[in-house]
Amino acid sequence: MPRINLETIKNKITSKKAIIALAVLAMIAAALASGIILQKEKPVEKPVPSISAGCDRVLWKGTELELTASARNIDNPLFNWTVDGKYAGSDRKLMQKLDIGEHRIGLDAAFDSMIITANQTTIMIDSAEGIALHDYAASKNQWGFQTRYNGRNFGVKGVMISIDSSPHSEVNDCGSISTKPLFAGEHTWSAMFQGSVIASGKFSVKEVSELKIASIDIAPGYTAGDTVSGKIVLRNTGSTSITGFDIETLAVNNNFAWMGDAAKREYLDHYTSDIKPGETYEIQVSMTIPEKVSGIRPSGRYTITISPLLNGQKQDTKVVYTEVK
């Protein structure tokens, strides 16, 4: 029978452990190098300062140009306006009368030993030639319009839009406007400028049934025995009337989430309504929190998930949190 050398076996085992340890260390080193285990904290990026002189505009002859400087992430900027390269003022607001033609407006802002610049173009006209409109679907129940001049987006002051023979509404300073929420179907539009129709057309809104949660009002905390007074606001973001819907609510006490379904409460409520496109519907929530449930105080941090349903189809979901002490 061969003689067993225990010392040799011990050395081999020790050697094997050392090899495994070295392999593990190598893996850890590789992970560290690739950032899997230890990631450097990303430096907090400072907000980028910016300024704006407003949208490019087209004005009818004799109309006074009015621009307001805006600044972001800048404290106490010092403004400086130029018109066609000439100094025009240092107030936040610029008011200027210009000759017919194209003018370049410059805006400088000085702060913290820095100067940044923004530019704007204003064109003065005496003819509607070159003015056009781009129309598009702004949402599932709204149509949008954007004024253009010689093929470029410009805010053409004074352009008025009418939908389905309704009273005209003026585009904003940047030349855009959206309709109020509309029903599905075909609609007509026309645009006027300086008393004359400059464009017209038709568009079709697709039939869409959609109900979204606009807001949920609930306090961040309550005490057992309190009366909860909350509110859910829904909005019809589709193009058809909503005559009925359901609200699915799931409340989970996170302190007892490990208990599974015992920590959950689910509700399904039906509502009859007549919500037209764009309209909102408020659901008032009022209930008293029991001081004890099966002899246990219902304290804990609650996650409440609310979903509106149309014809059994979930339309939206929002989660809110509250705490019961």
Task: Detail the topology: elements first, then pairings.
Layout: H1 6-34, E1 50-52, E2 57-60, E3 65-68, E4 70-72, E5 78-83, E6 86-89, E7 93-96, E8 101-111, E9 114-125, E10 131-137, E11 143-149, E12 152-153, E13 155-156, E14 160-163, E15 169-170, E16 176-178, E17 185-193, E18 196-205, E19 211-217, E20 221-222, E21 227-236, E22 242-253, E23 264-275, E24 280-288, E25 300-310, E26 313-314, E27 318-324
Parallel strand pairs: 2-9, 2-13, 20-27
Antiparallel strand pairs: 1-4, 3-7, 5-6, 5-8, 8-9, 10-11, 11-12, 11-16, 14-15, 14-17, 17-18, 19-21, 21-24, 22-23, 22-25, 25-26, 25-27
Shape: flat
**Roughly what is the average pLDDT, rounded to an integer?**
87
CATH architecture annotation name of the largest domain: Sandwich
| Unreliable sequence segments | 1-39
User: Count of helices?
Assistant: 1
**Strands ordered across the widest β-sheet:** 6-5-8-9-2-13
Number of separate structural domains? 3
Helix content: under 10%
Report, as a whole number of angstroms, the end-to-end distance: 77 Å
Our Rg estimate from Cα atoms comes to: 33 Å
Beta-strand content: over 45%
Strand elements, count: 27
List the helices and strands in order.
HEEEEEEEEEEEEEEEEEEEEEEEEEEE
By oligomeric state, this entry counts as: single chain
Biggest sheet layout: 6 strands, mixed
CATH homologous superfamily name of the largest domain? Answer: Immunoglobulins
Structural classification: mainly beta
Look at the structure and give the CATH class of the largest domain: Mainly Beta
By CATH, the topology of the largest domain is Immunoglobulin-like
